[in-house]
Design goal:
Blueprint (H helix, E strand, L loop, with lengths): L28 H13 L4 E3 L9 E6 L2 E13 L3 E12 L5 E9 L2 E6 L5 E6 L1 H14 L11
Antiparallel strand pairs: 1-2, 2-3, 3-6, 4-5, 6-7
The structure holds zinc ion (ZN).
Length: 152
């Protein structure tokens, strides 16, 4: 079921999300499906749980035709090298409802540990677009929006 995407300045988008109990992932499978459907329906590269009103530490990414769920993700390594590129967000729109874009500096490469939707522990070394999307979505779990990081 697709869900409504909360838009800035909804206060739910600004809350720090809580860790998920990995033993209780079964109860969240429907929510994960809803996140995937909502992301695909809106042509998003990623969607974090708070964007559909759930302040828990999970996001989904669409990458190279793969759907990847990140649960309790943690970045364990960040490159010194950074890169500035344009980003947009399904939750950041103008008064007409159109997505706002802006240039954001991010670490070029990151390592991230997380659990997938089955509760398996995973580790990924990400660069390029994947690295950027993970950093963007992880920010959502801490109540941070990309507009907070836009270069003046
Ligand atoms: Zn976003």
């Amino acid at each position: 079921m697709t869900r409504e995407i909360l838009k800035n300045p909804n206060p739910i988008l600004r809350k720090k999300s809580t860790e998920i109990d990995i033993d209780k992932l079964e109860e969240l499978q429907q929510l994960f499906l809803d996140m995937e459907e909502t992301m695909m329906e809106n042509d998003g590269a990623g969607l974090a749980a708070p964007q559909i009103g759930e302040n828990i530490r999970a996001f989904v990414i669409s990458h190279d035709k793969d759907i990847m769920f990140f649960i309790n993700p943690q970045i364990t390594k960040r490159s010194w090298a950074k890169k500035t590129e344009e980003e947009g967000c399904l939750s950041v729109v103008d008064e007409k409802g159109d997505i706002i874009y802006g240039k954001v500096e991010r670490h070029r490469n990151i390592n991230c540990v997380y659990y997938n939707e089955k509760g398996e522990k995973k580790k990924i070394a990400a660069d390029k677009m994947l690295s950027r999307v993970i950093q963007h979505e992880l920010d959502h779990l801490d109540g941070v929006l990309f507009i907070d990081r836009i270069k003046k």
